[in-house]
Design goal:
By secondary structure, the chain is of the alpha/beta class. It has helices spanning 16-27, 35-49, 59-71, 84-98, 110-123, 127-138, 149-157; strands spanning 10-14, 53-58, 74-75, 80-81, 104-106, 143-145, 165-167.
């Protein structure tokens, strides 16, 4: 089990899709996302950056965000991979979160794998979602932020998970992550060509 940081208001788990949504909005790629989702996800991550959330994550979050937010970042409407400055911007954003921030990283160990297997069966989940949830429970997180309404529905239909709230990111006021563009600038692609 990883160590908790003192003085932080809330211990939580942020699902990969929240990070990916911010990368899409920040780079202007994959503009099939809802602007409202971007704003709300950005605010959750700003709370983390400001020290108001104690974030725990499975190393699978890093793999998924790297894979979907950098390595395969693309605009579905154009069906092309991001390149050049857009790709570099995605890498820089990922590094700022995962290498420079105090996330409590958790390896997928046997206990988490077994708990994930049981959750997958009970709630009809895919293995990645089950690992994220099992990690959050194992690490004592009280909140699990996700954009995955299907996941929330499956958990609610299965009777919920004791001591873990699954929440959609919600508006918390006007906050920005240091070094990130403002809300008005976010939709401009970094590479105009």
């Amino acid at each position: 089990m990883s160590r908790r940081r003192g003085g932080v208001a809330q211990r939580c788990y942020i699902d990969s899709c929240v990070y990916i949504e911010v990368i899409k909005g920040r780079t202007g790629v994959g503009i099939d996302h809802a602007e409202q989702d971007y704003d709300r996800c950005l605010q959750v991550l700003a709370q983390f950056e400001n020290g108001n959330l104690d974030v725990t994550a499975s190393t699978m979050v890093y793999v998924e965000v790297f894979g979907k937010g950098e390595a395969k970042l693309h605009d579905k409407r154009k069906s092309q991979l991001a390149t050049g400055k857009t790709q570099a911007a995605a890498s820089a954003i990922i590094d700022s979160w995962f290498k420079s921030s105090p996330i409590s990283w958790v390896e997928v160990h046997q206990d988490i794998a077994e708990d994930a297997r049981e959750m997958a069966k009970k709630f009809h989940l895919d293995s990645q979602d089950a690992v994220h949830l099992a990690t959050a429970v194992d690490e004592g997180c009280g909140i699990f932020y996700t954009l995955d309404r299907r996941l929330i529905s499956h958990i609610e239909d299965g009777g919920g998970i004791p001591n873990l709230q699954l929440l959609l990111p919600v508006a918390m006021g006007q906050l920005t992550i240091p070094g990130q563009v403002s809300r008005d600038e976010k939709l401009s692609p970094l590479d105009p060509s």
